[in-house]
Prior knowledge:
This protein is α+β, with helices and mostly antiparallel strands. It has helices spanning 2-5, 9-22, 116-137, 205-212; strands at 36-45, 50-58, 61-69, 73-81, 86-90, 99-103, 108-112, 173-174, 181-182, 190-191, 201-202. The protein folds into two domains: 1-137, Pleckstrin-homology domain (PH domain)/Phosphotyrosine-binding domain (PTB) (PH-domain like, Roll), CATH 2.30.29; 152-213, Herpes Virus-1. It has a seven-stranded antiparallel β-sheet with strand order 4-3-2-1-7-6-5. A two-stranded antiparallel ribbon has the order 8-9. A two-stranded antiparallel sheet has the order 10-11. May play a role in early endosome fusion upstream of RAB5, hence regulating receptor trafficking and fluid-phase transport. Enhances cellular sensitivity to TNF-induced apoptosis.
Amino acid sequence: MVDRLANSEANTRRISIVENCFGAAGQPLTIPGRVLIGEGVLTKLCRKKPKARQFFLFNDILVYGNIVIQKKKYNKQHIIPLENVTIDSIQDEGDLRNGWLIKTPTKSFAVYAATATEKSEWMNHINKCVSDLLSKSGKTPSNEHAAVWVPDSEATVCMRCQKAKFTPVNRRHHCRKCGFVVCGPCSEKRFLLPSQSSKPVRICDFCYDLLSTGEMTACQSTRSDSYSQSPKSSSNDVSDDDDDDDSSD
């Protein structure tokens, strides 16, 4: 069916509409053989709080952006090659239900659908697209992925030293290797993680010591890649940026 739609006028028109919704700031999306499989609003778990994002699933990429005007305008376009994607279901917990992890070498995050049926459809379609791509290319599934960041609201104190409390002065930071929320003194070092950046990125002291000695696998977070509790509001919920989509610390 995908091959049949690839060069159809209806598919070309649909992709053109998506391009126009992102405006001049978005990347061109129309290429030979690309098919728009589906689209919809998913709740993305960002570092401060869950936020609605518009997602578009193509047969080779996953695209998402901020909703400016519903079904008419989006910005901050993100394009994820599906060949590098793996997904894992997340157990329901509190208000966060029907979720799964989208994991890639450069960025990993959790999303939630409105219903269990929508979750199942999204996961099935993504898995099918990834499987078809890998089958055609002969490549193997990616076994490397960036850590899923722990939301700010899950840490009132540094997750490494367990002492430093977060305040407007003592800001939250995220280790790019394990995803933990850490204080400045516990994350002063930087290390080159080629899959995430061409420049050294912030990591916690614990991960730095392990990476420096070559114990890469031991550096993985001891915390499960699923969220065991719903984000809670906090009077001192102060972080170094507003959204993990644009984070630098």
